[in-house]
Design brief:
about 325 residues, alpha+beta, 4-stranded antiparallel sheet, 3-stranded antiparallel sheet, elongated
């Protein structure tokens, strides 16, 4: 019975304590009462069991408040910041299947408190293969600001002609909504209350990140009802038909998703036909351009015409020197 009770107390410390939150003897008693059949356990017994865990090598801190109230913390193998880094790295690993990622992440969740698990689930998954610790700390600050429902301020950097990053100081007072991974970089989606629009910032280019005033409710990011091919909000969605070289099949599925309709091109076995609902923006036309003559917009006609207009803008630059093009 003693061993079983001690294990339950250890589980309580695992689930209910983290770097910022401890538990009192009363909290442990309530946990035992609600989750076990150990019956009523005295204050003295719980303190003795904690001492036994400490003697067994578990790093359990006891912090006394001004009213001499004792809070117990289990010091975990990884800090939450380190755990977040590990989970994000697993999520971004392209060699693992979704089930393998899920199983690994579930194991790491067992090392976190319930509060930390909730934060991990609500945060963006994924990571770059290598992440500078400066970026990890920036992410940690941003997640704290989001969790505490504060607006965000920061300096934002851009390169000048000398290849130097120049930072612009500004009190932005925007609502941080979500961290998103795109093309191996982290971005922060913010809602600008002044313009009532969503704006996107690269987190590695942010510094002096600081909390602003509190807000009551975060706006909801619009749900995409189709493929989005860059980091920014598309102007609208449209069902587009593409004619694509067959060797690009894997690339198309990765970009457009498994819901895209793909069939053989009956006129040429080297091509496939793709019907997909896709976000239309400058980013869409740039995406098509990068595939050159390996991709053709077949329909609708107005999307095809818009793309031709974009190509003509490019051709206009080169016609200055090569008028016969």
């Amino acid at each position: 019975m003693d061993n079983e009770r001690i294990l339950h107390i250890y589980k309580c410390l695992c689930r209910c304590t983290d770097e910022k939150n401890g538990v009192t003897v009363r909290d442990i008693q309530n946990y035992l009462s609600m989750n076990t059949n150990t019956g009523e356990v005295s204050d003295l017994t719980i303190r003795r069991d904690i001492a036994r865990l400490q003697t067994a090598g578990y790093d359990i801190k006891c912090v006394h408040t001004s009213h001499n109230k004792a809070y117990y913390y289990l010091v975990k193998l990884f800090t939450f910041n380190e755990m977040r880094f590990i989970v994000h790295s697993i999520s971004a690993n392209r060699t693992l299947s979704d089930n393998e990622k899920k199983n690994l992440i579930e194991k790491f969740k067992g090392m976190c408190s319930d509060r930390e698990v909730t934060r991990l689930i609500s945060e963006s998954s994924g990571s770059r293969q290598f992440m500078e610790w400066d970026l990890v700390n920036k992410l940690d600050t941003i997640y704290d600001i989001i969790e505490e429902k504060n607006k965000i301020n920061f300096d934002y950097g851009k390169f000048n002609i000398k290849k130097e990053m120049v930072y612009y100081h500004k009190d932005r007072e925007m609502i941080p909504v979500k961290v998103i991974l795109y093309s191996a970089r982290y971005y922060l989606k913010c809602f600008d209350m002044e313009s009532e629009t969503f704006k996107t910032y690269r987190i590695d280019r942010m510094k002096n990140i600081r909390a602003g005033s509190r807000y009551s409710k975060a706006p909801t990011l619009p749900e995409y009802k189709g493929a989005v091919l860059d980091m920014f909000q598309p102007e609208y969605f449209e069902m587009v038909r593409l004619r694509v070289k067959r060797f690009l099949m894997d690339d198309m599925i990765e970009w457009l998703g498994i819901d895209a309709g793909i069939r053989d091109d009956m006129e040429d076995e080297n091509y496939i036909i793709i019907n997909v609902n896709v976000g239309i923006s400058k980013g869409f036309y740039k995406w098509v351009m990068k595939y050159g003559d390996n991709m053709e917009i077949v329909a609708p006609d107005y999307i095809r015409d818009n793309f031709i207009a974009e190509l003509q803008k490019v051709m206009k630059i080169y016609r200055k020197n090569f008028p016969d093009i």
